């Protein structure tokens, strides 16, 4: 379950019913209709072993954010036993940075759809690669609710087999409609991103689920994004999202088990500004490291502003942090406070730790544009 989901789940306000945060069980589901044609026979009965670089080529070229979890197949995608009865992680302080990066990087695209009934069927399924790719991320309410266009790519070690067949049967039965998108069968649901009930959905928002190979599962928030991924998967393309020549790649260990990058390009009234940053676990302290970079030397001020803005946020949330700058990068080191957030509050407040709230809000804020470059260029 993501940080935002945990925050919503454990909030006493939510439990009292004052807020409805993206709970799809309150939606009256329409009987599914079928708009599919060729998609019914579109499944390829071949395991997909595409590398990370090949999967990256499937994405729209204006993709801005990557969250990547690549594990040894012996580790399941979700390892929930490492939390206490309230859902807080039970870890040594020295391991908090590693846990935080894994938490951010691990996609949970089905957790909030129909109370997680579909996601639960995948727990324990071994994955070789999980990618969450997004663009235009924004926080749309005061509890960290987000809106974004994107797609999660889950590559499992083996064919999902009977479990995959059962999953698709349930998706077909429960969805609003079944469509053929780029020749693939896609199950269409309402959007399932956790947010406050008063946030109105955009016309393009939804949950679009596709299984283009026996060991692949795609879950998108926009049909157009998914269509691009499906089409590019079948083509030999010459362009790519986040190409290798961008400077931020120098700070990314793509072979590590979990990491995240953002590369934002926004236009102001005078110019286009590029700012990028990568996220990794610290190797020298119990925390995380964000490395900010710029594509062009003229954007150094924007890079430094973005790093300073996140430093300000970290300090406001009570995390010890330090910022070091040089010509190429600005490196922000953030440690977890002591006592650690999973220790009981004193006095306890309805089993709800305010420090954990701050931690969750901070991690969510790292994924959204206003923290990084929104105020540099004014508007989108």
Short description:
The chain has 380 residues and is of the alpha+beta class. The chain has helices at 3-10, 12-15, 52-58, 96-105, 161-174, 223-233, 300-316, 354-365, 369-377, and strands at residues 33-35, 65-69, 127-139, 146-156, 177-181, 184-189, 205-213, 216-222, 258-267, 272-281, 287-293, 321-325, 329-335. A 13-stranded mixed sheet has the order 1-5-6-7-8-4-3-2-9-10-11-13-12, sandwiched between helices.
| Count of individual domains | 2
Q: In percent terms, what proportion of residues is strand? A: 25-35%
Unreliable spans: 1-34, 37-42, 341-352, 373-380
The major β-sheet equals:
13 strands, mixed
Which word captures the global form?
globular
Computed structural class: alpha+beta
Secondary structure tally: strands: 13
**End-to-end distance:** 30 Å
- Helix percentage: 10-25%
Can you give the mean pLDDT? Answer: 77
Number of helices: 9
C-alpha Rg, in Å? 20 Å
Looking across the biggest beta sheet, what order are the strands in? 1-5-6-7-8-4-3-2-9-10-11-13-12
Write the H/E string, N to C.
Answer: HHEHEHEEHEEEEHEEEHEEHH
SSE layout and pairing:
Elements: H1 3-10, H2 12-15, E1 33-35, H3 52-58, E2 65-69, H4 96-105, E3 127-139, E4 146-156, H5 161-174, E5 177-181, E6 184-189, E7 205-213, E8 216-222, H6 223-233, E9 258-267, E10 272-281, E11 287-293, H7 300-316, E12 321-325, E13 329-335, H8 354-365, H9 369-377
Parallel strand pairs: 1-5
Antiparallel strand pairs: 2-3, 2-9, 3-4, 4-8, 5-6, 6-7, 7-8, 9-10, 10-11, 11-13, 12-13
Helix pairs in contact: 1-8, 3-6, 7-9
């Amino acid at each position: 379950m993501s940080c935002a989901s945990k925050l919503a789940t454990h909030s006493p306000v939510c439990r009292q019913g004052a807020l409805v945060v993206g709970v799809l069980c309150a939606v009256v589901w329409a009987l599914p209709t079928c708009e599919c044609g060729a998609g019914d026979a579109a499944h390829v009965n071949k395991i997909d072993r595409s590398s990370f670089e090949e999967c990256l080529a499937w994405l729209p070229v204006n993709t801005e954010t990557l969250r990547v979890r690549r594990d040894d197949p012996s580790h399941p995608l979700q390892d929930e036993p490492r939390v206490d009865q309230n859902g807080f992680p039970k870890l040594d302080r020295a391991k908090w940075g590693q846990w935080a990066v894994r938490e951010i990087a691990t996609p949970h695209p089905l957790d909030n759809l129909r109370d997680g009934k579909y996601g639960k069927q995948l727990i324990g399924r071994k994955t070789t690669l999980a990618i969450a790719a997004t663009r235009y991320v924004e926080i749309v309410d005061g509890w960290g609710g987000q809106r974004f266009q994107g797609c999660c790519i889950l590559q499992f070690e083996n064919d999902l087999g009977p479990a995959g067949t059962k999953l698709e049967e349930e998706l077909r039965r429960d969805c609003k409609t079944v469509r053929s998108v780029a020749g693939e069968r896609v199950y269409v649901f309402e959007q399932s991103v956790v947010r406050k009930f008063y946030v109105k959905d955009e016309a393009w928002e939804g949950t679009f689920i596709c299984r283009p190979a026996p060991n692949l599962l795609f879950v998108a928030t926009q049909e157009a994004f998914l269509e691009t991924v499906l089409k590019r998967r079948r083509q030999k393309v010459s362009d790519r999202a986040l190409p290798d020549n961008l400077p931020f790649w120098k700070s990314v260990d793509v072979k590590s088990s979990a990491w995240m990058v953002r590369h934002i390009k926004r236009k102001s009234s005078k110019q286009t500004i590029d700012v990028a940053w990568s996220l990794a676990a610290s190797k020298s302290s119990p925390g995380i490291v964000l490395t900010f970079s710029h594509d062009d030397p003229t954007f150094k001020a924007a890079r430094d502003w973005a790093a300073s803005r996140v430093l300000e946020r970290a300090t406001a949330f009570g995390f010890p942090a330090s910022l070091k700058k040089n010509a190429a990068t600005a490196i922000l080191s953030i440690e977890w406070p002591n006592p650690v957030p999973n220790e009981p509050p004193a006095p306890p407040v309805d089993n709800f730790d305010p420090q954990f709230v701050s931690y969750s809000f901070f991690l969510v804020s790292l994924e959204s544009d206003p923290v990084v470059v929104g105020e540099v260029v004014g508007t989108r």
